[in-house]
Amino acid sequence: MRQLYFQQVQASVPDPKRSQALVALILDHAKKIIAHPARPRKQKIDSFVNQPQADLAIDETLEENIVFDRPEELLVEYSEDRSFSCVMILDTSSSMTGDKHLLASIAVAVLVLEVPAQDHALVVFSSEAKAIKKLLVKELPQATLLKFLSHQPRGFTNIASGLQAGVNQLKQQGNRKKVGVIATDGRSTEGENPIEIAKHYDFLVVLHLCGAGSDLEASQQIAQAGNGVCLEVEKLEDLPHRLYEALRMLARR
User: Fold this and answer.
1) Which of 48, 88, 226, 246 is most exposed, with the fewest beta carbons within 10 Å of its own?
2) What is the tally of helices (H) and strands (E) in the chain?
3) pTM for the whole thing?
């Protein structure tokens, strides 16, 4: 996988077949991380007419009608995935080149496999931010990964721009809670103070990338301003696993 990645990065013209092979390897790696793909579920009650394969809800049916003679008066119970939407915000400044970018692509694969396409957005930021996968848009996992891989890291670190781009995406879903996950070392080298932008989130998970020069206190302050939590990522190799844990946590909220 690493060899394929650097062959693509160094090629003057990317090879489509090599790109497809790389994406397939990244997705396979992400699938191994997702040990429990079944998402949290919630119980629902509906009419037999709408859910004829579901189990009969005897108590609920009798509460509504002691005597019934029409199929629609029968109530059934069933479970479905508990849905949630979120935006993932990734640092793609010049400090995230090479192996770091490849590891971040595995985290992207975890996102696109774990959260339905219409329910997630992907924002990348350096000096400026860009939504390379927009919320409410259905897109194949392979397409999102290819776009991320083609967006090579460069520029400075403007955390505020990434958070703002995330808020802009979440506004498209109306009154639903604004939930985000940002991976950062906490150090902004450009742009305004991210704290004020973080306050626009209902719940913000900060995956703090530990390392030389990182600022844990700044990451914690961003998480606190976003009414969320800060989770430390000791090594960048752990980022996909920590993202998976964060998504599982969000799904249960």
Assistant:
1) 48
2) 9, 9
3) 0.82
